[in-house]
C-alpha cells in the first residue's frame, strides 16, 4: 500500500476509533472533553496529535475493566500481564480482536517464510501471558502445524523437536540458547533436528545472540515484538531482510515521542514508542505509551513490504526489568519487603545470566530483633520471603539475608537494581 493510501486508511480508522471510545469509555470521553475535543475534530491521522496519551497507570487506575469499550457479553477472551504493585493489567478481546491478532501474528510467520508444510513448536508460556496463545493462533492461521509445547519441559521439548521433525520454534531468545545448551549436553547437534525458522521475542536481544542461536540451532532467527496492552505478539516482525521489524500499522499506529516533553519525534530519532490501536474493539487504546525505546525507520525495505519498520528495542524509559521473559518491577519487590516486619526497608536486586538463563537474587537486611542464632529459624525466614516473592513476581528469586546496615545506602537516588546481563 502506498503511503497516501495507508494514511487515508489510518485516518478513517482513527475517526471511527475516537467515536467508539468517546461514546463507550468514560475515561476517554472525560479526557477529550477536558481538551475541548469531539470525535468530529479527529478526521485525519495527523489529528492524532490532538489526542491525549494513555499510560499503564491509567490502566491500573481503571482496574480491572474500566477502559473496556465493548459490553462484557462481547468479550470472548481475557489476558493479563504483571502489574507493578497489586493490580495486573487486564485486557479483554472481542471475537474481532482475536481475528486481528491471529492475522497480525500470521503476517509475522508469513514474513519468516513459514508455510503449511512447517511444524511449529510454541515454547512461550500459555496462560494469562499473551506469548503462547498469540503465537499459537498465528501459526494455525498460516495453516502450519502447531505444537503447544509451552515452557518448562526442556527434556520433552527436545524429544518433540527431534521425533516430530519440528521445523519452527517460537520462544524467548534466552530460552532458545538454553535449549541449544541442553541439546549439546545430551550430545545432540543441529544436525539431529530439523529446525529452520525461529520466532523470538518477549524480551530484548541482540545481533550477537541472533548469530549464536542461528549457528547452534541451525535455523534463521527473526524478531517478534508485541505487548499485551496493544494485542500481544505480532505488533511488529522482521522480514527476510532482518533489518528492522515491520509494524502492522493498519491496526497499530506507531509514533515516537520524547519521553520527557511528549513531543512527536521524526523518523530515525530515538524515543518512546507509542501505539494507537486503530481497529480493536475490546479494549482499544489511544496513544498508549509503551515505555519501550526505539526509532522508526525511513525508506523502503528490500522485501517490498511498505509498512513502516521499527529498530530493535534498545531499552526502557521506566524501571521495568524483563527476567526470563517475565516483566518485573522493583516496586513489586519493595512492596513485599515493606509488608514484612522482619526486614529493613532496604533491598538490592541483582540480575545476572548463568549460562543462558537469567537469575535474580534479592538481598535484604534482617531487622535486629529477628536475627536468630538458630539456623532453622533463618532458613524459615528466607523461605517465607522467597515464597512471597514467587507469588508476586511469578519467577523465583534467590533470597540472600543480610546484616542490618550492610546494603550500601547511597546519597541521592539509591541503587536498587544491578543488572549484570550484558546485551552485546
Ligand atoms: P509479551 O507477551 O510480548 O512479553 P508483555 O505485555 O508481557 O507482552 O510485555 C511486553 C514488553 O515486552 C514490551 O513492552 C517490551 O518491553 C518487551 N518485548 C516484547 N517483545 C520484545 C522484543 N521482540 N524485543 C524487545 N522487547 C520485547
Ligand atoms: Zn522487509
Brief synopsis:
This protein has helices at 3-24, 26-34, 56-61, 95-112, 130-142, 154-163, 173-185, 207-217, 330-338, 375-393, and strands spanning 75-81, 89-94, 119-122, 145-147, 168-171, 197-201, 220-227, 232-238, 245-247, 252-257, 271-277, 288-294, 296-297, 309-310, 315-316, 321-323, 326-328, 343-354, 357-366, 398-402, 417-419. By secondary structure, it is of the alpha/beta class.
Please give a structural write-up.
The protein is of the alpha/beta class and 424 residues long. The protein has 2 domains: 94-316, Rossmann fold; 321-423, ANL, C-terminal domain (GMP Synthetase, Chain A, domain 3). It is 31% helix and 26% strand. The protein is built from 10 helices and 21 strands. A 9-stranded mixed β-sheet has the order 4-3-5-6-7-8-9-14-13, with helices on both faces. A hairpin with a 2-residue loop joins strand 18 (343-354) and strand 19. Helix 9 (330-338) crosses helix 10 (375-393). The protein is globular. It starts with a helix and ends in a 5-residue tail after the last strand. Residues 239, 241, 246, 301, 303, 305 line the site of zinc ion (ZN).
